[in-house]
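Annotated sample (chain length 109).
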Amino acid sequence: MSPHTPPTTDLRSEATTAGAAGLMGRRPRIVVADDDFDVRDMLAHVFERDGFEVQVASDGDMLVRLLEEAHRASADPDVLLLDQRMPYYTGLEILYGLRLWGFRKPSVL
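Output written by the structure step:
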């Protein structure tokens, strides 16, 4: 395929199908943590539209509680999308704690 030829397939749906194959029939889970309501709401909407199961947190403390609950239920998220500057804990502090905890899923800060 050249840069001037449009793709013949929807690569996004192929990637979603291929990536979801390892999830045993469930939607991929993403956590969006941001203290800005508009950013958090927009990202949640986009990911839900694209087929993700989305959970949101408005600050670091809420995120820690959400992740602890998910871990106890054996429902760890597949991806984390974290704001660096949030009340209580920053995204970097959360990532550091999660790495100590053994969490190795993809995370975007």
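Annotation: Helices lie at 11-20, 37-49, 60-72, 91-101.
Annotation: The chain is about 45% helix and 15% strand.
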